[in-house]
Amino acid sequence: MASVHESLYFNPMLTNGVVHANVFGVRDWVTPHKMALLVLLSELGRAGSQLGLLERRRLNRLLLPLLQGPDMALSRLRKAIEECCPHLAGSVHIRLKLMAEGELKDMEQFFDDLSDSFSGTEPEVHKTSVVGLFLRHMILAYNKLSFSQVYKLYTALQQYFQKDEKKDGADENEMELTDPEELDGKMEKEELDGPLREEEIACSGPLSQKQAEYFLSQQASLLKNDETKALAPASLQKELNNLLKFNPDFAEAHYLSYLNSLRVQDVFSSTHSLLHYFDRLILTGAESKSNGDEGYGRSLRYAALNLAALHCRFGHYQQAELALQEAIRIAQESNDHVCLQHCLSWLYILEQKIFDSCVLLEHSVNKSLHFGLPYLASLGIQSLVQQRAFAGKAANKLMDALKDSDLLHWKHSLSELIDISIAQKTAIWRLYGRSTMALQQAQTLLSMNSLEAVNVGVQQNNTESFAVVLCHLAELHAEQGYFAAASEILKHLKERFPPNSQHAQLWMLFDQKIQFERAMNDGRYHVADSLVAGITALNSIEGVYRKAIVLKAQNQMSEAHKLLQKLLIHCQKIKNTEMVIRVLLSIAELYWRSSCHTIALPVLLQALALAREYSLQYLASETVLNLAFSQLILGIPEQALNILHMAIEPVLAHGAVLDKGCAMFLVAKCQVASAASYDPQKKIEALESAILNLNEAKTYFAKVDCKEQLRDVLYFQARLFHTLGKTQERNKCAMLFRQLHQELPAHGVPLINAFK
Fold first, then answer.
1. Chain centroid, CA 756 distance in Å
2. Residue 505 lies in a domain
3. Cα gap 438→54, rounded to integer Å
């Protein structure tokens, strides 16, 4: 914005090279770019009815961003006009050329003629229209110039035009030396670029107040709605620094700098910019003007509150608590109930890091409703639902609470909270193991249109809610064996949330987890082990758990057991019940593999009690399957079959494909073991039923490319066909088994020493 030396452009607040603190005291000044826009408006008025309806409509759509945006090179301006009306672009170029190559009096005459646009009974431009206000501002700014300033402006216009002429000459030479196909590709790329490219912004001069406000509001909107369209963090910071060089007291620029620093997790720069923002609010008196005598104190208490939120975001809980205490003290002195409610919400967030308490949160929701703060009340309800979901409350009660919060959202058009609520429902259904309901909620959010107005070409809802839902959707597809679809979703996530964006860690973790599961299914344990480091960096608990799974698969039982015991103690301490149950199931499997079958039973019963206490239905079903497997090992397959009927339905309805395959394989094993005591006819029927279940299990395992389990199923089928005297089917299964057995590492064929 200010990378071109300021002497090229007239700035009425620049005297003797010193920038005044109130550089935006004058809203507009004349620059060569704005003169080019004035020429465009003049030629548009002259063209009148000669322009077609479509051309006029395109030009009208083009004018607003040109009037509000930063100055740009003449070549880019000409190209934008040519896309709308080539004839008008030629007229503007000729008019500018005559003015730049003529004399100073030509420029004087041009500004004198601009006033004629408002004359007559039916003027070309209305004074109060957007174009009319722009013309009046420019005429007023030009009339205030001294003679030396007018001469500087005329010199700047000549340089502006000559720079464009030189660029045209260079482009012509390049066209002669460039292959036409390469040139077409280059032009197509340029046409696809957005309206505010970094190189174009860097070429513009110091911004007026309206231009600066437009730039800041545009970038802030893009950071919220579509971060990929905003300038890169380094480029945006460079432009903000240039803007602050002309006006160090521009508070909004400091706040955008704060938001930009948060994108890259820069705690020092974000703290620095946030403090400067509130300092500038107090110094400029902006708060005092709008809030009377309370303005100064209001800035101080909200500065302390924002500082507490910033420290909490970076995990500095002691500093956050100190800042929050300061905000509460100032708010109590000023009797500011709104600020106190925000403080109460943050106090709950800080205290839940130490102990779980719903008292503060319930009090916050009630007070927020009392003081008419629907946004804060809804956030409190969302937090309360989340906490009670982890505490094992029934799903119907949680959904009723979310329904009440949804009424608040729709009543007050709180678009962002509607998204958060649906994402919350998706996560809750996933927690309870209802993948079908989770999929339905995810699709609901993705098919919704935002209630917020955003510019054309800007992706709507590039928020954390959408990132969470898309990640769940990718994992659901991967669990069902649709790896190509999951890859497409992750590819979309990478485009929508680039690696340097604030929500990128979500899809990075899910991407690593999906790759890990695929490597484990395929028996590539060395690949899975290499992915553990990446998972640990994003989620330490998940990383340790996956490391233990790899060690268990590699038959390093003692190391896996030590790791799982440490993880179990840690998860019990932080009350991560879901992970506690998964760890207990893994420990039980270690006992099976070590032939300690009786020791595994108390562990499984403990896991089942926890799963039922916390309403984790899917984990409860998985635990029952493990108990059935234990009973099969202990020689009571009839009892195992009885309890299998309790658990298999939720697994088949909501489970992953791998779990469905393992469940059907277990049913077949129990059927074969039970058939030993049957009479011959009934035994044949039981074995044939087992073969059908094995076929179903084989289909599931093939879908996720789980070759080890496929090998086991084929071996088991071959033995059953041999027992039934079906030689042809036996030979086919034996051949397929041999192919897989040669491909996979040979460590025996485990038929009844592991559930998965």
1. 34
2. no
3. 47
Query: Kind of pairing, strands 18-19 and 14-15?
Result: antiparallel
Contact assessment for residue 723 and residue 745, using Cβ atoms and an 8 Å cutoff: no
pLDDT value of residue 5: 30
Question: What are 19's strand-pairing partners?
Answer: 14
> For residue 29, which amino acid is it?
W
Q: What is the mean pLDDT of residues 573-589?
A: 92
Lookup: tokens for 254? 């400091």
Which residues constitute the domain of residue 127? 32-167
Position 491 pLDDT exceeds 90? yes
pLDDT of residue 426: 92
CB 528 within 8 A of CB 516: yes
Of residues 21, 16, 69, 62, the one with CA closest to residue 208: 69
Judge contact between 709 and 665, C-beta under 8 A. yes
Q: Which residue has the higher pLDDT, 119 or 583?
A: 583
Please report, rounded to a whole number, the percentage of residues in the chain having pLDDT higher than 70. Answer: 83
Computed on alpha carbons and rounded to an integer, the radius of gyration of the chain in Å comes to 35
* Residue range 104-115: mean pLDDT, rounded: 82
How much is the pLDDT for 667? Answer: 92
Question: Lowest-confidence range among 111-120, 177-186, 270-279?
Answer: 177-186
Q: Is the pTM of this model over 0.85?
A: no
Q: Give me the phi and psi of 19, to 5 degrees please.
A: -90, 125
Strand partners, 700: none
Q: Give the side-chain half-sphere CA count within 13 A for 516.
A: 24
Contacting residues for 321 by C-beta, under 8 A, at least 6 apart? 308, 350
Centroid of chain to Cα 744: 40
- Asked if pLDDT for residue 202 goes beyond 50, the answer is no
The span from the CA of 313 to the CA of 316, in Å, is 8
Nearest alpha-carbon partner for 449 in 490, 418, 489: 418
State the Cα–Cα distance between residues 65 and 211, nearest whole angstrom: 10
CB 493 within 8 A of CB 467: yes
User: 75 and 166 in contact (C-beta within 8 Å)?
Assistant: no
- How many domains in the chain? 1
- The answer as to whether 564 is a domain residue is no
Q: Which pLDDT score, from 0 to 100, does residue 461 have? A: 63
Partners of 15 in beta bridges: 18
* CA–CA distance, 333 with 606 (Å, rounded to integer): 52
> What is the amino acid identity at position 364?
S
Residue 196 lies in a domain: no
Our measurement of the distance from residue 513's CA atom to the centroid of its chain's CA atoms, rounded to an integer in Å, reads 18
**Does residue 67 fall inside a structural domain?**
yes
pLDDT at position 427 over 60: yes
